[in-house]
Amino acid sequence: MVIKVIELIGESPNSWEEATKDALAVAAKSVRGIVGIDVDHFTAKVVENKITAFRANVRIAFKYEA
Fold first, then answer.
1. Which of 6, 9, 32, 37 counts the highest number of beta carbons within 10 A?
2. CATH architecture, domain 3-63
3. Using an 8 Å Cβ cutoff, are 37 and 61 in contact?
């Protein structure tokens, strides 16, 4: 078995957890055979000293079918 990995950035106005789940949900719409997700790091967008968006940089692993 061969596993391929793609990198995505999920974004949410509410939380890093929601940003991670959103990235996975979007990937699942076009990628089959997802077997894992690795959260690389979290970042946030700040406007006027307030967090306005939570971002999760993730790697999605899936079975590669040639």
1. 37
2. 2-Layer Sandwich (3.30)
3. yes
Torsion of CA 34, 6, 30, 53, to 10 degrees: 100
Write out the two tokens for 26.
């979007």
Q: In whole angstroms, how far apart are CA 27 and each of 13, 14, 47?
A: 19, 20, 28
Q: Where are the domains of the chain?
A: 3-63
pLDDT in tens, 6-26: 999 999 999 999 999 999 999
Which residues, 6+ apart, have CB-to-CB distance to 47 below 8 Å?
none
CB 47 within 8 A of CB 6: no
